[in-house]
């Protein structure tokens, strides 16, 4: 019984109406005939009552039909309202969605779109689009669009998030991130294709702008360190060049005075050669440092610090600054030039900070491995960084130095190299510490480089 009621609830309204009418008629005919046959025996009266019953049945069934069809019509009306509302909502969704949408038939005929798509195609109304295919439009890339539609529909597989362009007539090129998905009917057959597009032209332009700004900064930072390097080369060359010139003028003088001595000449030439080798070696060191896209290599902490110091030795010596490093040697794989560049930036900052300091000047470099991270700590005793500026020192062009002394990109570039290239972090702090029974305050830079996730050269 309950199952019967449930089944009745699930059937469609027209069938329900028919069944109610059928049931009502059946019951009416059966019961009214039986009652009349029991109550009335007179044939004439029976005939009369049958006529009355017929009229009564027609009136009752008309009322019933009226009520049922009223119900049917209000149901249809309700459904139509619901459909209209759903359509309206769908239209609103399509128009307000932050994406460009269109859909086409199996033959590539445009069936619908939102206003954003019309704008992209440089069309004024849907009439200019609907019923047409891509070949009707003067767009350079139309062949690609058609073959993508074909691919999506024939393979029944979506093609998602790919970059393409559109160059409508009289309009500039736009860069698009497009996804196309096949549309299926109830039976799973392909009936068309739906396209969803995001216009990423502005985003790409912004990215390009940022990239060229970054390139400019890198260039500036390279030029700045190149200036320092040249000063260094000049300093490192002064001594051997003066040895070479003294020896060669000595030899020339001896020749002129006719007192040349073969042993002395040989010794002088060997000496000149050794100094020339040294000159060439210093050039190699600098060249290697400036080489672009050096590969990842095995690095020893001691050699790393030695190479770094060699590149800025003259600045340290002139100012009598001592580098104190821990004895423990560690081997690790990373990008040597990049780490050296960062260390040089940090050491140069410490050297600048020592400008008005007259006590012992130290730069401590401590490198250790903690789990899978390489931790480099570089600390000086130059007084530290004041709390008012410490949060800003990694910003590009932030400097407290005069124009000829600093541009404010040293720490910015260091952070870029550490975070983008080496996937690590760099932090700054001011610390108080004791060294050889003296109390000092200075800046501490802590660099953490994860050793297993260093990126490829960017
Ligand atoms: N070791 C340090 N001690 C004290 N202050 C420091 C130290 N390192 C950096 N600073 C402060 O941070 C600022 C920013 O440093 P950053 O290296 O980015 O630029 P800069 O040295 O001023 O110029 P550039 O490096 O471009 O020549 C410096 O101007 C300085 O005020
Ligand atoms: Mg600097």
From TrEMBL:
The keyword Transmembrane helix applies. It comes from the Bacteria. Pfam families: HATPase_c (PF02518), HisKA (PF00512), PAS_4 (PF08448). SMART domains: HATPase_c, HisKA. One of its GO terms (molecular function) is phosphorelay sensor kinase activity. Keywords: Kinase, Membrane, Phosphoprotein, Transferase, Transmembrane, Transmembrane helix. It is an enzyme of class 2 (transferase). Residues 156-212 form the PAC domain. It catalyses: ATP + protein L-histidine = ADP + protein N-phospho-L-histidine. Residues 232-453 form the Histidine kinase domain. This is histidine kinase. It comes from Arcobacter ellisii.
